[in-house]
Amino acid sequence: MKRFAATMKIALRALRRNKLRTLLTMLGMIIGVCAVITMVGIGNGAKSQIESQIASLGQNVVLIFSGSFTRGGVHSGWGGAGTLTVDDAEAIQREIPGVTVVSPEVRSTTQIAAGNQNWSTQILGESADYFTLRNWPLQDGASFTEQDVRSANKVAVVGETIVQQLYPGEDPIGQIIRIKSAPFLIVGVLKAKGMSMMGSDQDDVVVVPYTSAMKRLFGLTTLRTINVQTATASLLNSVQQQIISLMRQRHRIGPGRDDDFTVRNQQEIADMATEQSKTMTYLLAAIACVSLVVGGIGIMNIMLVSVTERTREIGIRMAVGARGNDILLQFLTEAVTLSVIGGVIGIALGMGFSKIVEVWKHWPVATPLLWILASFLVSAAVGIFFGFYPARKASKLDPIDALRYE
Hints:
- The protein is of the alpha+beta class.
- The chain contains 13 helices and 12 strands.
- The strands form 2 sheets. It has a 6-stranded mixed barrel.
């Protein structure tokens, strides 16, 4: 222990001799570790945000999209073709075991008005069970009922953004909102959900019975989406396959022909979204690691210069009894000290920049403790790896030649 303390004392004294050079040498490590911590924090924050947004779809959800098929070389895309019907939704509810909730969906963007205020927003046509499926509680009032759906009644549930834009400081429950000049009675206000993973405002929405949207607003006969909820998560894959078989049968799609619909379950959507986020995080971390390598090369360069400058000192130490291993340990300690101090400063700056991003951009940031520990260990490893050659070169110097060095 005494030997280590003495070695550290000599190392710190050697590094203090030229403070500016020491600081500039550490700069590569500082920038590299700071970049790794910041990028990983932002990437993990994005991943957690995506996961929470996927969870906001509800529990155990299967989505059937209209379209996304290829015919004659033309790719339609999700929701691009009117291939789903209300009868399809009813058949899924009736014929597939394990399905608990089905909500046919139509959507469009249109102008709404209340008094002398107007606003362009998204109109969702859904079933009465939509709010249960999406796990979306109401802040005030009540949702529309199954009777409202059957009768295509003109009732609506609005998001928090609609309340702020059209009814600032007022109670919207019981008020009339005009959608494409049709008067709808507001019966409920949804609890705020915030931004979606695509950056859209989830609260900027008006939800009405899908029958009302189809008949009274948009004159539609087909659906854009069918939302399905299964009893348990373990049923997702089997229900998905049964839906595909049923839809192909109902749409008379023969063997070898492309589907005129797309079925995705919640886990697939989550995996796709988080995989993209993970890929981006690893890419950013890899780019940041380049800075660590550059910082390591800088340490090697400076240590080689230091060995040359201190050749006579090395000769004197060897002349008074220092062994090659002592010289090796001395210079290796200096290299690791440079690297570790730079790594610690980089970690602190990375955490600080992450917090600035979180406050300034309102972007969630999550830096796992494992990455912080890994950054510290990597910085030490870089010091050992890039410091070993200069340290070994110093330990191999001939004492006589070193003493004669000018």
